[in-house]
Every structure is written in structure tokens, then in C-alpha cells.
Specification:
A hairpin with a 2-residue loop joins strand 6 and strand 7. This protein is α/β, with parallel strands linked by helices. It has a 15-stranded mixed beta sheet, with helices on both faces. Strands 6-7-8 form a 3-stranded antiparallel beta sheet, with no helix packed on it. It folds into 2 domains: 260 residues, Putative sugar-binding, N-terminal domain (Rossmann fold); 164 residues, Molybdenum Cofactor Biosythetic Enzyme, Chain A (3-Layer(aba) Sandwich), CATH 3.40.980. It is built from 14 helices and 18 strands.
Length: 453
């Protein structure tokens, strides 16, 4: 799969999901790097030849104006790099709203930088318990949990920022401003002729795509199409459609890491490289739970191998003496050889009472994490492994740590990647970093991060 130019580019609308796509591509044998923003020429040169280039962003937490500013720069970069496929990586639950993380806004911003009218939107990721059938999204509640329609999901229906009140993703995206959405439903992927199943299915799908592209062709309008995904067996079929179109004109594809999984399945290289075993951490582990999801709360409660420290989020943001005392407490635990887990949300899943924004909490958390890392480095015992739960906290922490890139190390559990950090600072280069969203992982996630389970 090696070429003179990358095969694949992706922009993740948060850092946690962007690392999941990194893991899919790296395990398929593609030389892959996730950059912390549009990379400089020096960073690209330092990364070496790449088959897949990713940029981790924060659009999921941005209003439309900020999204357009960030993603326009991303689009210009990828237009020059010219991978056949540009993947706009969004959360597998599609949680977004007109005023924040607007996926329609993201599509409209990135599409002018590719040349293919067709914009496939993949609506499921079976490997994570996400299923899209007849354009309706269903999601498991935690790893292996019961599957719910997304508007009845116990967490996503009452998400504190972007509650999901509509399961039909066509309607969900139309409310954000994406017009003219068509659909390809999963029965089209299935065999319809017992004597010539492959040819019949291929012909039917190709004809359906051509019909969708013909609609509005005279106006050169964008042609967004939502594609169902209900089983892993459909990935190669969907991947063929995407790759076929990308060979005719550079393509913008939208969705979770299922976009990468589909193309990898079509290329015939699924899991070419087995995930390396998660070995025990070299020294104490620092973990920070900034997510307020009930699943993360359960993971914190189950983390009995850590010294757990409850953080008053409001005081962290407003009281410098409190923040310094917390830093001293974290450092003391790490210096004594303990694994330390700090958490800003209540472990009973109750709403956060602090009268401060989630962005302010994430930034204050990230700054504190960076200070603890620096303190350990100055002591001559740099931290070698960190785990962070929460999309906003992860994004701010990576920036505060002054990392320029992440490469794949191994997989902690489905949807959760352990990455290796790239930094100009020797004490942070090679730091093992787990970034995970609120809906990812089993209750033993933090225990698994230690590598001793």
C-alpha cells in the first residue's frame, strides 16, 4: 500500500476519536501519524514517509464560526497533500448540534477542498456496538452493553451539551443545515440473486450510487448520502464504493473509524499487524478522568489499584492555592510509587454542581497535568504512561504537553488506543498516552491501562 503520496488523510473532531482511527490504519500496516494540528514542514519531515496522515482537532466542542476557521486550514493542507480519501472523523454516536460540533458545518467547510460531489456518510461502527439500519442509529451502552436507539440511549439522550433527540441521522444532520441527504440502506448490500450474488449486489450498488450522483449533477451540488452499517461483513462492500469513487475524484467521507475499517477491509488488509501486548507500565501511572459520563464514573469506582483523588472542579478553576495543593498531592503519590487517578466528576453519575464551564475545567485540568509531568521530569523520573478520559480534557492536555504528534503503540480495548507521543522535549518524547471518550471501554479500563491485568 506504499505510495509516493498518502493514501488516506483524516481530521478527527476530537483527540480521543482521532486516535481510534490511527489504530485502525496502523494495525493494517499503513505508516500512520496523527498530528496535533496542521503540521509544519519540519514535523512532516520528522515523521518520515507516511501512508496515512491525520490531524487531531477540537471541532466537536466548537461553535460553527470556530469550526470553519480551524477546518478551512485543515482543508487547505489536505488539498495540497492530495490523498484520494479525506476522512472527516466524527463521534460514532454522531452527538452534535446546530450550535456546537455542527457536522453539517464541518462537511460544508471541508468539501470545497476535494473534487468529488459524492459525500458518503457512514452511520455505524459494529466493532464498537454502533449500528445504523434504515438510517436510524443504535448504540450499545458501554462495551457489550444493551443496544438502544440513540434517542433512547441512557446517556446520549441526555448528553449535557449535545443530547441526541433524533435517531434518523438524515433528520439529525438536516437540522444542522445539511440539505439533500439521500440514503443507501443495508438490504442493498445483501445478495439478491442466488446464482450470481456478488455481481448482482455490485451492479445494484453501483447503479444506486450513479443514480444518486446524477441527481442535481447539472448544478454541481454536493451529494451527501447516508450509508447503513449493521455488520462487519458489510465493511468491504462499503469500502469498495468509497475507494472506487476516490479513484475518479478526491473524496470526502464522513463518519467514525468505520470509514477506515471499510477501506482496510476492501484493500484486504484487516488487522495485518496484531496489536502488541500491553506490557506493565514503566513506573507509576497518572490517570485523569475529566469525562462526566456514567460509564467513566463506573470505571473510576473500579480502579482500585490507584490512589484516587476527588477534584473540586470549581476550585481547580478559581483557587490557585487549591490547584497547587492538588498538584503537590498528585506528585507525592507518584513519587511514592503509587498509581494516581484524579477525577473531576461525581462517581455516582450525578450532574456536576460546579458553576463553571466544561471548557474551563478541561483547560485547568490540562494545565495541571502538564505541571505534574514537568515536575516529574525535573525530579529525574519522567512519567512514562498517562491515561485521560474525556474529549475536551484530552484535547487540551495534548496541547498543554506540547506534543506535535502521536503514533500507534497498542490497543487497550476496542475504541481505546495507547499512543506514543512525539515531542521536541526529551522527557515527553515516547510518553505513552491513552485518550478515551466517555462512552468507551469496560469498567476495568483504568486497571487494564496498568498492563498488569
Amino acid at each position: 500500500m506504499t505510495t509516493s503520496a498518502p493514501l488516506y488523510g483524516w481530521y478527527g473532531d476530537d483527540f480521543t476519536g482521532a486516535t481510534d482511527t490511527l489504530s485502525v490504519l496502523a494495525q493494517a500496516g499503513l505508516r500512520s501519524m496523527l498530528f496535533m494540528g496542521v503540521p509544519s514542514a519540519e514535523a512532516l519531515a520528522a515523521a518520515g514517509p507516511l501512508d496515512a496522515v491525520g490531524i487531531a482537532g477540537a471541532a466537536r466542542a466548537m461553535p460553527p464560526e470556530a469550526m470553519r476557521a480551524e477546518m478551512s486550514a485543515v482543508g487547505r493542507f489536505f488539498e495540497k497533500l492530495a490523498p484520494p480519501v479525506l476522512h472527516y472523523k466524527v463521534c460514532s454516536t454522531f452527538d452534535s448540534a446546530p450550535h456546537v460540533g455542527n457536522i453539517a458545518c464541518g462537511i460544508q467547510t471541508l468539501h470545497p477542498f476535494v473534487s468529488n460531489r459524492w459525500v458518503p456518510i457512514l452511520g455505524g461502527q459494529p466493532s464498537l456496538g454502533r449500528y445504523c439500519a434504515f438510517s436510524n442509529l443504535f448504540a450499545a451502552a458501554g462495551t457489550g452493553g444493551a443496544v438502544h436507539r440513540i434517542d433512547r440511549h441512557p446517556t446520549m439522550r441526555q448528553h449535557p451539551v449535545t443530547p441526541m433527540g433524533e435517531a434518523d441521522l438524515r433528520l439529525h444532520l438536516a437540522r444542522q443545515g445539511l440539505d439533500g441527504i439521500t440514503a443507501l440502506h443495508y438490504p442493498l448490500y445483501e445478495a439478491t440473486n442466488d446464482t450470481d450474488t456478488d455481481a448482482t449486489t455490485t451492479d445494484a450498488l453501483d447503479a444506486a450510487v450513479q443514480a444518486l450522483l446524477a441527481h442535481g449533477a447539472a448544478s454541481h451540488a454536493m451529494a451527501p448520502t447516508l450509508l447503513d452499517l449493521t455488520t462487519p461483513g458489510q465493511l468491504a462492500t462499503v469500502g469498495r464504493l468509497l475507494w472506487q469513487q476516490s479513484q475518479q475524484a478526491r473524496l470526502l467521507a464522513v463518519g467514525s473509524s468505520a470509514v477506515a475499517q471499510a477501506l482496510v477491509a476492501h484493500w484486504g488488509k484487516p488487522a495485518l499487524t496484531a496489536a502488541a501486548p500491553l506490557v506493565p507500565a514503566d513506573g507509576p501511572v497518572l490517570a485523569w478522568a475529566g469525562s462526566l459520563s456514567p460509564l467513566t464514573a463506573a470505571q473510576v469506582q473500579a480502579a482500585t489499584a490507584y490512589h484516587r483523588i476527588a477534584v473540586d472542579a470549581q476550585r481547580l478553576c478559581s483557587d490557585m492555592a487549591y490547584a497547587q495543593g492538588l498538584q503537590d498531592n498528585l506528585c507525592a503519590g507518584l513519587h511514592s510509587g503509587q498509581n494516581v487517578l484524579a477525577f473531576t466528576g461525581p462517581t455516582d453519575g450525578a450532574p456536576l454542581a460546579a458553576a463553571v464551564s466544561s471548557t474551563d475545567i478541561a483547560q485547568a485540568s490540562a494545565d495541571l497535568i502538564a505541571r505534574v509531568v514537568q515536575a516529574r521530569a525535573e525530579r529525574g523520573a519522567p512519567l512514562r504512561r498517562i491515561g485521560i478520559a474525556g474529549g475536551d480534557t484530552s484535547s487540551h492536555a495534548v496541547q498543554a504537553l506540547q506534543l506535535w504528534g502521536l503514533s500507534y503503540k497498542t490497543t487497550v480495548c476496542p475504541g481505546v488506543t495507547l499512543s506514543s507521543a512525539h515531542s521536541a522535549a526529551p522527557s515527553r518524547h515516547g510518553l505513552e498516552l491513552m485518550l478515551k471518550g466517555g462512552q468507551m471501554g469496560g469498567t476495568d479500563l483504568f486497571e487494564r491501562l496498568l498492563g498488569t491485568a
